[in-house]
Structure formats: structure tokens, C-alpha cells
Specification:
Shape of chain A: globular
Largest sheet of chain A: 2 strands, antiparallel
Strand content of chain A: under 5%
Distance between the termini of chain B: 31 Å
Oligomer: heterodimer
Number of helices of chain A: 14
Largest sheet of chain B: 6 strands, mixed
Number of strands of chain B: 11
CATH architecture of chain B: 3-Layer(aba) Sandwich
Number of strands of chain A: 2
Order of helices and strands of chain B: EEEEHEEHEHHHEHEHEEHH
Shape of chain B: globular
Strand content of chain B: 15-25%
Radius of gyration of chain B: 18 Å
Structural class of chain A: mainly alpha
Radius of gyration of chain A: 20 Å
Distance between the termini of chain A: 20 Å
Number of domains of chain B: 1
CATH superfamily of chain B: P-loop containing nucleotide triphosphate hydrolases
CATH topology of chain B: Rossmann fold
Helix content of chain B: 25-40%
Chain lengths: 334, 251
């Protein structure tokens, strides 16, 4: 059957909108039904989802596995902490306004070095660079606070319209910040969705699938990988910017390689070969880690078992497995 | 009129002279076949012209413009495209996207991030027209990785053709397909390429295909040209017959 020229292929847009609307409604209503702690966890989950969404532009769409995305998350967090230290506490918009260009510049710089290589060499380079940043954060303690880190107080939201103090300040902040992060999350999802469905996104997927052929279409491979790195680092950095006021403190732990491992874990958990996988992975991982820590002192062992099981049994992640199951059921019906 | 010319083009791999001072000429509008046994240097010659390899010495001229040291991207802009001996597609993308990407690249639109690829009406229309020409419009939404071998071969050529080159190199477009599919593929490729007034250089082993579709045939042997002529001239050439039958050369 010949495709209709006049009708753009809107199915994926409609599918996304159809699936997203009820989920968004649930996310909007949820703070009214759960405790503050659960709302707080959900914010962490949304932030992890933004970080994973950025990370997956490199892994899922460009075919580059970064072991150093903690650097961009951490630089986002430290950028906010430095703003607080040198310019005083401000509104969240101010943090984002300063933080995003900082993360973008650092991502562009590190990306320029890393994308000169691929496969294991790329992975090792990203890891090495993130460890350099970690060491700097640890050793330059007179600026960074060393292992004690830097404190970030609760910022005002919406250009100072919402500020939080007094005995109920924390609860009010969590509820307001939840909607704030949710709005940023929605913007990030839409932006990333447009990027991966744009000619740029298709080009990245072409490079991922077949670098030689992409080169013989006249595509300048390194330039595209570099831009993908920049966008990816900036999204993950934005997650760091959003994370630090919620956490109240940033330490070198968020720059350490194990945190990069958590971002990789997140993408694997949800499934890196589909758009929604990292989002689901971010949310599930946050709850998994939190409850694993609360349940047992051997929580790392528990996460390790989950990871091994995941790789062996569900290599396409949670979303990949659900899609597969859905396809099987649909086939069974027809 | 000469479209492409190589001057004393050399490429050596260790002791093996893959291209031994080749003066290769391609005329505008012709359908030329490059034949020869395995290791004769055909693919190396195409790799040198398409910038997949750099020559040790010599020149490559496209309409008298020296392109010897141009990058792949610049040669594509100059009008040279190629397909590959082993099918080279974007298997995770749809058939439509494979062709659309060529058009996006040609139009300089690949860096666009703020618009949906599917919503570019001009590219969409052209991609579907190209797929139609290659008989693949019915498979537009299918994943390239899921196509049958014959369809994959056609798509491989369609991806190169969508760059709208002036000169297209097709490296064994019928290898690994049935005799029936071979004829179908070559009928389609020949008709599209000639219809689009694209000059084509085809590397091919099947001499029935070569004699049937070519305007001119160039035979290579051990990195050098052994014969050059029309299908009838090549048919009558004893050296060519010797090579094809594995016998010693007459001259």
C-alpha cells in the first residue's frame, strides 16, 4: 500500500500524546493523595528521569556509552552551589539561567575531546574526565568544601513569587517544587522527543546504525556526535541543577564514577532502545534504590542482582519487555 | 564528454599493487561496468574515487577539477555517490527514513533539531517518489533490517541515488541474490539511473548482466586495465575470455 503524501506520519505524535495525557493527569493529582516524603521521592525520580533522558541521547540514539555523565550532573549542582556562595541565594530561575550555560560549555569542551573516539575508548575517556572533575571537587576544598560539599538553601520559585520559610516551609517547598520540576520535566520530554524525531535525531540514529554509510551520505560524523554530547550533557546538567536545592547539599559523591554507573543503570533498567525507557528507568531506580537502602545494609548487592537479572532476562529493559509482551498479545489476538 | 578521469592512480597494500598507475576515464551519461576476478582492484579503484581510501599517488579529476584530496562529504557535494558490496543500510530505521536521510543530507537539513523529520513535505514527497521508482514504496514503513536481500540491494542503491549524484558507483548490486532477482534489480537500477541521466559505474561479476546492461566494459586484472570496449568488443577479446575461464593470457 502506498503511503499518503499529504498526511505526515503523525502516529507517533498521537501515540505519545495519548499515553502521556493520563500519566500527566495522575502526576498532577498525586501530591493531594500521598505524604510529603512520597512527593519528595517522586521529585527525585523525575530528576533522575531528566538525567537519563539526556544520557540516552548518547547511548540509545547515537550509540555512545558514556561512563562519565556524573560530571555534567555534578557540574550542574556545583554551578548552583557557587552561585549561592558568591552571589547569594536567589530564585530557581536564576540558578537555571546561570547553570545551563555553564553545563553546556563544559559539555561542549569535554565532548570535543571524547567524540574523537568511539566504543571502549570513548567510554574510558568520559570516565577519566569525570574522575578528574571529581578529584578537583575533592581537592580544591577551600572552594568546593571538599568532602563536606556546599550547602544550597531552598530557593524562591517563579522569580521570587513563591518563597518558603516558617514551620510549614519545607512541606510547601516540596509541593511547589514538585510542580516546578514536573513542568521542567514535561518541557524536557517534549524537547527531547522533538530532537530525536527531527532530521538531527534521525541522523544520530543513522550514525548509530551504520557509521560508514552515514559518512557516505555526506554526514560529518564527529560534528553530530559532538552536538549530541553537548545536548546530552546539558540535559543531565539540568537534572543536577534541579537536584541540588532539593537535596540541600552537593558533595563530590555526585561526581564519582559510581554515580555515572547509576545513570547507566537507569537507562538499562527502563530500556535504552526506546524513548520512554529512561524515564521509566529514572522513576523505578529512585524507588528501588531508596527502598533497597531502607530494607537492607547490603543494598548494593540487591541492586547488583537486579542489574545482572536485567541484563540476562530483560535486555530491552522494563519498557522493552512490556512492548514485547504487548506485541505478542496483539499477535495472539489476531 | 569526460566526467571523471584518474591520472596515474596508485594504491599499494604491502607488496600488492591494487591500483597500478590507472588512467581511468568515465564519460558523461554512460553505464559502465568494471569487471575482473577477485583482487583485480575494482573495489579499490572505487574506494579511491569515493574517498573511502586515499591514493599513494596520482590524481582524480571530476570535470577537470582536482578532487584527489577532498573529503567524502565534499565529493558527495561534487556529485559522487556510491553503494556497497555488502549492503550498508540503517537497519534500525524505516525504509522511508533511509532514503529521506539522503535527501536531508543533500539539502543540508540534517542539523535541524527543532522540526519533525516526518513533517517536511518536500523531503517526504521526494523520498516516496524515489521509493516508488525503486519499487519500494509499499515497504516505506518497514524497518530496513527486515527487508529481503533483493529489496535491501535495491534500497542500498536508492539511498545513494537519492543524493542525486552525477556519478554513481554501484559495487556488486546483484551479489547474493537469485537469478530472477538479479534481472529485476538490474532492470530497475538501469531504468532509474538512465532515466535520471546519472552516469553509472557498476562493479559486477555476472557477465550476462554486464553484457546485457552496459554501454562500455572495462576489465581489470592485477591492478591494471586489461581491456576497455563495448560489450561486443569485450566479448571478442581473447584475453578477457582467458581471464573469465581462468586460462593463461593470450598476450
Amino acid at each position: 500500500m502506498k503511503a499518503d503524501l499529504k498526511v505526515p506520519r503523525n502516529r507517533s505524535v498521537l501515540r505519545l500524546a495519548g499515553a502521556a495525557a493520563p500519566i500527566l493527569l495522575v502526576l498532577i493529582l498525586i501530591p493531594g493523595f500521598v505524604e510529603t516524603y512520597q512527593v519528595q521521592l517522586l521529585i527525585y525520580g523525575l530528576i533522575a528521569a531528566i538525567a537519563a533522558l539526556g544520557f540516552n541521547l548518547l547511548l540509545g540514539y547515537t550509540g555512545l556509552l558514556s561512563f562519565g555523565h556524573s560530571a555534567y550532573f555534578g557540574i550542574g549542582a556545583y554551578a548552583v552551589a557557587f552561585v549561592v556562595q558568591y552571589l547569594g541565594p536567589h530564585s530557581m530561575e536564576f540558578y537555571i539561567l546561570i547553570g545551563i550555560p555553564v553545563v553546556a560549555i563544559v559539555s561542549a569542551l569535554f565532548g570535543y575531546i571524547c567524540v574523537r573516539h568511539t566504543q571502549i575508548f570513548f567510554g574510558i575517556l568520559t570516565l577519566a574526565i569525570s574522575q578528574v572533575v571529581y578529584s578537583l571537587a575533592l581537592k580544591l576544598y577551600w572552594e568546593t568544601g571538599g568532602s563536606d560539599g556546599l550547602r544550597v538553601p531552598r530557593p524562591a520559585l517563579l522569580l521570587g513569587l513563591l518563597s518558603f520559610s516558617g514551620p510549614r516551609g519545607f512541606q510547601q517547598f516540596i509541593t511547589s517544587y514538585y510542580y516546578y520540576v514536573l513542568a521542567v520535566f514535561v518541557v524536557c520530554v517534549v524537547l527531547m522527543w522533538v530532537i530525536v524525531h527531527s532530521p538531527f535525531g534521525k541522523t544520530l540514529q543513522a550514525i548509530r546504525d551504520n557509521e560508514v554509510r552515514a559518512r557516505f551520505l555526506g554526514i560529518r560524523i564527529r560534528r553530530f556526535r559532538w552536538i549530541a554530547f553537548l545536548v546530552s550533557g546539558t540535559f543531565t546538567g539540568l537534572a543536577g541543577i534541579l537536584w541540588v536545592p532539593l537535596n540541600g547539599l552537593t558533595t563530590p559523591d555526585v561526581l564519582y564514577w559510581t554515580f555515572s554507573g547509576e545513570i547507566v543503570f537507569t537507562a538499562l533498567l527502563g530500556g535504552f532502545r526506546n524513548f520512554t525507557g529512561p524515564i521509566v528507568g529514572g522513576l523505578v531506580f529512585t524507588y528501588l534504590k531508596t527502598y533497597a537502602i531502607a530494607t537492607t545494609e547490603y543494598w548494593q548487592l540487591l541492586l547488583g542482582v537486579v542489574l545482572v537479572t536485567l541484563v540476562l532476562v530483560l535486555p530491552t529493559g522494563i519498557v522493552g519487555a512490556i512492548s514485547k509482551l504487548g506485541r505478542r498479545l496483539t499477535k495472539g489476538k489476531t | 564528454m569526460i566526467l571523471l578521469k584518474t591520472v596515474n592512480l596508485r594504491k599499494q597494500f604491502g607488496e600488492t599493487r591494487a591500483c597500478d598507475g590507472l588512467d581511468f576515464v568515465v564519460h558523461k551519461g554512460e553505464f559502465l561496468s568494471l569487471v575482473g576476478s577477485n583482487g583485480a582492484g575494482k573495489t579499490t579503484l572505487v574506494n579511491l574515487i569515493s574517498a573511502h581510501l586515499q591514493p599513494d599517488s596520482g590524481q582524480i579529476l571530476l570535470e577537470d577539477r582536482d578532487i584527489t584530496h577532498m573529503s567524502v562529504a565534499d565529493r558527495i557535494k561534487a556529485g559522487i555517490a556510491r553503494s556497497f558490496q555488502i549492503v550498508n543500510l540503517f537497519d534500525g530505521l524505516s525504509v522511508f527514513d533511509n532514503v529521506a536521510l539522503s535527501i536531508f543530507s543533500r539539502e543540508g537539513k540534517t542539523a535541524r533539531m527543532a522540526a519533525l523529520a516526518d513533517h517536511d513535505y518536500d523531503v517526504r514527497q521526494e523520498a516516496l517518489e524515489v521509493l516508488d521508482e525503486f519499487g519500494l514504496s509499499g515497504k516505506a514503513e518497514a524497518l530496513a533490517g527486515g527487508l529481503a536481500q533483493g529489496e535491501r540491494k535495491l534500497l542500498d542503491v536508492a539511498v545513494a541515488y537519492a543524493l542525486r549524484p552525477r556519478l554513481i558507483f554501484l559495487d556488486e548490486p546483484t551479489s547474493g541474490v537469485s537469478t530472477h532477482d538479479k534481472a529485476q534489480i538490474m532492470d530497475t537500477v538501469s531504468s532509474v539511473v538512465r532515466g535520471g541521466r546519472v552516469t553509472a559505474v557498476v562493479i559486477e561479476h555476472d557477465m550476462d548482466v554486464v553484457f546485457r546492461y552496459s554501454d562500455r566494459i572495462v576489465m581489470m586484472h592485477e591492478g591494471a586495465f586489461l581491456a576497455d570496449g563495448t560489450p561486443d568488443e569485450i566479448r571478442a577479446n581473447k584475453d578477457v575470455a582467458s581471464i573469465l575461464l581462468g586460462a593463461p593470457l593470450a598476450s
